[in-house]
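FAQ: What does a ligand-bound record look like?

Like this one, built around zinc ion:
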Amino acid sequence: MPIRTCITCGMKREKRDLIRIALNMHNQLVKDISGKMKSRGAYVCPSKSCQEGLLKNNRLNRIFRTSGEITLDLLFK
Ligand SMILES: [Zn+2]
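The answer part, i.e. the structure of the complex:
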């Protein structure tokens, strides 16, 4: 099983235990449920605290290689 790192807490977990997130064309974080979005992806724990901590992560711009402001997609829950 591939191992990925949660970008909020830094915990290494099996890929299937994490949620893949990506940026849409509006610089909004979306959950890539299918895992098939072509954009750069990152991984986060399913826990509320890790998901709520995403926007507090000051490395987001570096992770997604963008300089624009990153927000959560409206459907991101
Ligand atoms: Zn986490």
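Follow-up question: can I read anything off the structure? Yes, for example: The longest strand covers residues 19-23.
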